[in-house]
Amino acid sequence: MTTENAVRVFAGIFILVSLGLGVEASPLFHSQHWLWFTAFVGANLLQSGFTHFCPLEKILQRLGLRSGSVAPGV
């Protein structure tokens, strides 16, 4: 797994969990304030698309994940 894939996985998990905690119709509902976390993750993904800077990607690189797009099976 590359850092780019891991960032997408983390972002997806964070968004789904924060939506579950922030939407009143969810059985996991805690507070609508969790939707701010959803917005933060989305805004970070947006700025990362323009600036190519993502704090999580830097952390994952330091933990040893390789960066770059690698074709499956290579």
Please give a handful of descriptors for the protein shown.
74 residues, 3 helices, elongated
Biggest pleated-sheet summary: none
Number of domains: 1
Number of strands: 0
How many alpha or pi helices?
3
Low-confidence stretches: none
Mean pLDDT: 90
Helix content: 55-70%
Based on Cα principal axes, name the global outline. elongated
Radius of gyration: 15 Å
Structural class: mainly alpha
- Which oligomeric state applies? single chain
Beta fraction:
under 5%
Secondary-structure element pattern, one letter each = HHH
Distance between the termini: 11 Å
What does this structure look like?
It is elongated, with a radius of gyration of 15 Å. 62% of the residues lie in helices and 0% in strands. The mean pLDDT is 90. The protein has one domain (3-62). The chain has helices at 3-22, 34-51, 55-62. The protein has 74 residues and is mainly alpha-helical.
What is the gist of this entry?
This protein has 74 residues and is an all-alpha fold. It has helices at 3-22, 34-51, 55-62.
List the helices and strands and how they pair.
Blueprint lengths: L2 H20 L11 H18 L3 H8 L12
Helix pairs in contact: 1-2, 1-3
